[in-house]
Design brief:
The chain is of the alpha/beta class and 492 residues long. It contains 15 helices and 23 strands. It has a six-stranded parallel beta sheet with strand order 1-23-2-3-4-5, with helices on both faces. A five-stranded mixed β-barrel has the order 16-17-18-20-19. A hairpin with a 5-residue loop joins strand 10 and strand 11. Helix 13 packs parallel to helix 15. The longest helix has 24 residues. The relative contact order is 0.11. The chain binds 5'-deoxyadenosine (5AD) and iron/sulfur cluster (SF4). The site of 5'-deoxyadenosine has 12 residues, from strand 14.
Length: 492
């Protein structure tokens, strides 16, 4: 969500004549787009703001802004801890940024733009969270052939540990025709893979004026035949809302990739109840079985929180059991971080010591890595379809004129590393898998060598026709064209 928000902010400011600066020192405006999901993310922002205090004193005309969830949640704390900040703007108000910059320039005063908190009437709160997704700048996407499309904002689940429903507001689904138009636009710009985003993306529901209800399965069907789009993905799913119609859509619509991220959070019913996840581990296991029965070969990944209040060794062992037997492609594991403003913070004492959280985190990760390795080893000897994303970390260090190490993803979201030319970025290739670690598959492009170029049998696009922009994965952060103003989005 935050990656997309940053893209949209940069897109809208570019329209106002701004361009990206390479360092905060060069920038006229510096924004931090923040996350509140865990304390650690907030700590990093306060340190970064602290580091900029001296710089801001020396250059008082520079505008410093805090955007996103932390801005929505902690305006008073930000004012106190970082009084040199000029703009505090919540995630539902980002479209106001150009006006806020103008107001700081003319008044020199702190500008606030925040949505209502959830104590007001639902209608008013909903209206105070504005989504401004259509404003996009294609050059700001990490690459030209992949894009996120937000299909809903907010969340109504209120898991007791989670700050998202407070800072991102009520769940609201976008109009399906608006989404379809955005997908068409992206496809026209060369996008091949679209990932629909929502906090609980499979809860998507839109009641049209004609009385028809669109579910995520209907939306996938609606955009499926968009020319140019090869792959459709969606993240993140809520286990309780994994209905059969969605799984059938995944099975029957060839562009819908067989990958589901469905966070379990815990394998212990007592913890799930305390977390208010609305399902039991038995339900979750049945759901996994249903996904695999309807979509054979589907890859599934999960999230887990360790050290939630009251988590005993016995509860933790139940989570280990779910990881051991769940067959997850991978899992994201987090240590519980108490969030003021959540029900969990009020109701439960953070009673699992930090060293125990750390150990459980490491143990669960080691277990998941062993499961991932098994899953990956099963792919050795198979041929997979890979959308090439660009040079791997190693590839960036190699000679760009020769074959280098590239990375891409399979339809099931497995990361594959193989040798090829940088210009293959954006191409869909067949790769033979011949080795694997817990994190990565290694393979060889199915090729015949002609004049030193790699050809993969089924290519239709001659090499010279691959757009320039698709040839590099990381766009330069600094655009050298003429402009008087620059913005910095430091990576925190
Ligand atoms: N502490 C730790 N992890 C959290 N998550 C959400 N809130 C918290 C918290 N307070 C994790 C959940 C969620 C992921 C995005 O972050 O696992 O799925
Ligand atoms: Fe947070 Fe739960 Fe909503 Fe996910 S479903 S965003 S964990 S409240």
């Amino acid at each position: 969500m935050n990656v997309l928000d940053s893209e949209l902010v940069v897109g809208s400011l570019r329209r106002q004549g701004f361009q990206l600066a390479e360092t905060p020192e060069e920038a006229d405006v510096i924004f931090y787009n923040t996350c509140s999901v865990r304390q650690h993310a907030e700590d990093k922002i306060y340190s970064a703001l602290g580091r900029l205090r001296h710089h801001k004193n020396r250059f008082p005309k520079k505008i410093l802004g805090v955007l996103g969830c932390m801005a929505q949640k902690d305006q008073e704390i930000i004012k106190r801890r970082a009084p040199h900040v000029d703009i505090i703007c919540g995630p539902g108000q980002l479209s106001q940024l150009p006006a806020l910059i103008g107001a700081v320039e003319t008044t020199g005063e702190l500008q606030l733009a925040l949505s209502l908190d959830r104590t007001e009437t639902r209608h008013d709160v909903e209206r105070s969270f504005e989504s401004y997704d259509p404003l996009r700048d294609p050059s700001m996407r990490p690459n030209s052939f992949q894009a996120y499309v937000r299909i809903m904002i907010g969340c109504d689940k209120f898991c007791t540990y989670c700050i998202v429903p407070s800072v991102r507001g009520p769940e609201q689904s976008r109009h399906p025709l608006e989404i379809a138009a955005e997908v068409r636009q992206l496809a026209a710009e060369g996008c091949k893979e679209v990932t629909f985003l929502g906090q609980t993306v499979n809860s998507y529901r839109f009641e049209a004026k004609d009385g028809r209800t669109y579910r995520l399965s209907d939306l996938l069907a609606l955009v499926h035949d968009t020319p140019g789009i090869e792959r459709l993905r969606f993240i993140t799913n809520f286990p309780k809302d994994m209905t059969d119609d969605l799984l059938v859509a995944m099975r029957d619509l060839p562009k819908v990739c067989p990958y589901l991220h469905v966070p379990a959070q815990s394998g212990c019913n007592e913890m799930l109840k305390r977390m208010k996840r609305l399902y039991t581990v038995e339900f979750y296991r049945d759901m996994l079985a249903r996904c695999r029965e309807i979509v054979p070969g589907v890859a599934i990944s999960s999230d887990f929180i360790v050290g939630f209040p009251g988590e005993t060794e016995e509860s933790f062992e139940k989570t280990c059991d779910l990881v051991r037997t769940g067959g997850f492609k991978n899992s994201y594991i987090f240590k519980y971080s108490p969030r003021p403003g959540t029900k969990g913070y009020e109701m439960f004492e953070d009673d699992v010591p930090e060293d125990v959280k750390k150990r459980r985190n490491n143990d669960l990760l080691a277990l998941q890595n062993a499961v991932s390795l098994q899953d990956h080893r099963r792919q050795i000897g198979h041929r997979v379809e890979v959308l090439v994303e660009g040079p791997s970390k190693n590839g960036f260090k190699q000679d760009p004129n020769g074959p280098i190490q590239l990375t891409g993803r399979t339809r099931s979201d497995h990361i594959v590393v193989f040798d090829g030319y940088p210009r293959l970025a954006g191409q869909t290739l067949n790769v033979e898998i011949d080795d694997a670690t817990s994190f990565t598959l290694f393979g060889r492009v199915e090729t015949c060598e002609t004049n030193g170029d790699f050809h993969s049998g089924h290519w239709e696009t001659p090499l010279e026709k691959i757009p320039e922009a698709a040839q590099t994965r990381i766009l330069p952060l600094f655009d050298a064209s003429d402009s008087s103003k620059r913005i910095g989005l430091p990576l925190v």
